[in-house]
Amino acid sequence: MTGKRNAVVDPGAIVAAVEAFWRDHDELATTVREIQEATGISTPSLVRFHVQRLAQAGRIRWEPGIARSIRPARRDAA
Fold it and tell me: Which residues are CB-contacts of 18 (< 8 A; sequence separation ≥ 6)?
């Protein structure tokens, strides 16, 4: 079986995408799909996996099941 292998995901790229969206959209929280588009990650489930881990580590804030709840951990995010 031949298939496309996923590249290693840089968690810093996800944090940067969340912060950029927050800054560029008047402090509007982002979505899994918007992070996928901004980072080029292959699937929403892979984004969701990393978002969950980053939230557990305190690098971003996320409320599972709530639309547009992915946002920077810092209120003063650049």
Answer: 30, 35, 60, 70, 71, 72
